Amino acid sequence: MKKTTLYFGIGFLLIGLYLFFNPLVSIASIAWVIALIIAAMGLMNLRTYLSLEKNDRNNWLLFQSLVKIIIGLILLTSSAFSLSQIVMSFIGLGLLILGAINFKISNRSNRRILNKTNITGSSIFTFLLGIIFLLNPTFSAGVIGYFLSLVLMIIGAIILVIYYQSQN
Question: Could you list the residue ranges forming a coiled coil in this record (predicted)?
């Protein structure tokens, strides 16, 4: 059990160091998993389409299946750089939408909400962060990659401290 703790600590440190020197890999890995899921969903939809009786088949289901498979395959064959940009663009678009919705909610909320200024400030910050992610997705992916690598290295260091403290 104690050796397992040592191996986990070293593993987290090594993964953190690897991601520190390759920050786009962490975001690209997430995008690769998402692409794999999209392609698998397309294949499952195609299987469902083919398993239906001919008169029950819907051409839109076939079209949707093929689009998912094509998008999944395109993403799976893309470079880490492209995948990280795509993911960060989608995150940026999501943040823009969330910021706009929150701003609209804060402007329409009744006067009983005491922290309306905080809600408005938060929504503006979210909106601006979305703009930054959309305008420079590579920079954003790098920052998140570095942050993730530092978190993993800190976790590894903490695990190693726990291991060495249990040795005494």
Answer: none
